[in-house]
Amino acid sequence: MVAVPQSQPSSAQRPASSSPFEVIQGSLSARRVARKSPLLAGLHRTADGSLIGVFAAVLVLSGLTLHWQHRWTLAFRQLEMTRDLAHRLTESTAMLERHLLERSQTPKQMVPTTVANLVYLDRPSAASAKPGIDHLAMLGSLMERTIHHGY
């Protein structure tokens, strides 16, 4: 085997549009790598595609995470407002009950409920019910009665 020197084209034979990056682009060309090693080129394409897919998945999941975090924050604020309003309603109800109990005379006469004070009644039988009861008249008479405060 004999080494024969290759002739280099002179600067007059080179095209005038050549740039310093042309040498780099020529040596790292995808076509040249694909011609020399098709398996390596396929591996590079697969790696590039999977990397783009991973970046796209990260972007989508980041967007979804931010979206659901915002939704959870809004729902938690509504829950806190609901708890606060329920607490205020309970306090207001207790204040109204206390005020009504202080103004009325009936609760001072009442005694606490105990087992000894309870009266047990037998369940009425179905045969003892009167067939001709006017329920609307009975409800009307109940509406005319005064309502006593307290329990």
- Characterize the largest beta sheet: strand count, sense, and whether it forms a barrel: none
Give the overall pLDDT as a whole number: 79
- Note the overall shape: rod-shaped
| Helix content, binned percent | 55-70%
Fraction in beta strands: under 5%
Please provide the ordered H/E string of secondary-structure elements: HHHHH
Rg from Cα: 46 Å
Q: Number of DSSP helices?
A: 5
Structural class: mainly alpha
What's the total number of strands? 0
Regions with little confidence, pLDDT below 50 for 5+ residues: none
Distance separating the two termini:
118 Å
Explain the overall architecture.
It is a single chain. By secondary structure, this protein is an all-alpha fold. It has a domain at 23-109. The chain is 62% helix and 0% strand.
Quick synopsis:
The protein has 5 helices and no strands. The protein is an all-alpha fold. The protein has a domain at 23-109.
List keywords for this structure.
mainly alpha, about 150 residues, 5 helices, about 60% helix
SSE layout:
Elements: H1 21-27, H2 30-36, H3 38-103, H4 106-109, H5 135-144
